[in-house]
Design goal:
single chain, 186 residues, alpha/beta, seven-stranded mixed sheet, 6 helices, 22% strand, binds 5-O-phosphono-beta-D-ribofuranosylamine
Length: 186
């Protein structure tokens, strides 16, 4: 039986949500930071903070080959919950099945609105007065699993996708740790 409080955070870039999950950890421990980009900026921060890291370049590998390596690394660290945080790679159905119900993601929109990319530009183009972010369970379908929590960010006059992104990102940092700390009690 996997212990849900042993969390791995998967990143592909700067890792600001990963840092927030480490700094605000309650009821869980981040025991591994993993990446499909060996040069991801967030991995340096994790190493400096003495967290275990794992990375492998996904280039040239099939989706499932990479996912099998990743899954083995997660098993080695007795991971119970996986938190995707800017992990820019679609997981194979094989991986999702292995970890069914134990993978969370943070997405910068109020799902079910705007799955995929360019969420803030799409929200502004649509004339939305409220933007936000969602934490959801990962399934085979992109950004479509059960929503566990959301934070709303009002749109202000003169907002651009960039200004909204900054405020939503700050909201993401609060929301993700709160939702994860409740989720691991399930
Ligand atoms: C965040 O906006 C997150 O919602 C999205 O990718 C971005 C990652 O940023 N999935 P960071 O690497 O956590 O700073």
């Amino acid at each position: 039986m996997r212990d849900p409080r042993r969390v791995a955070v998967l990143i592909s870039g700067r890792g600001s949500n990963m840092r927030a999950l480490v700094d605000k950890a309650r009821n869980y421990d981040v025991v591994l930071v993993g990446s499909n980009k060996p040069a991801a900026e967030g991995l340096d921060w994790a190493r400096q903070h003495r967290l275990a890291t794992w990375s492998a370049d996904s280039k040239g590998q099939t989706r499932e080959e990479f996912d099998r390596q990743l899954s083995a690394a997660l098993d080695e660290h007795d991971i119970g919950t996986i938190a995707l945080a800017g992990f820019m790679r679609i997981l194979s159905p094989w991986f999702v099945e292995q970890w069914r119900g134990r993978i969370l993601n943070i997405h910068p929109s109020l799902l079910p609105k705007y799955p995929g990319l360019d969420t803030h530009a799409r929200a502004l183009d649509a004339g939305d007065t409220v933007c936000g972010c969602s934490v959801h369970i990962v399934t085979e379908e992109l950004d479509a699993g059960e929503v566990l929590g959301q934070a709303e960010v009002p749109v202000r006059p003169g907002d651009t996708p960039e200004s909204v992104e900054q405020r939503v990102l700050a909201a993401e940092h609060e929301l993700y740790a709160d939702v994860l700390s409740e989720f691991v009690k399930r």
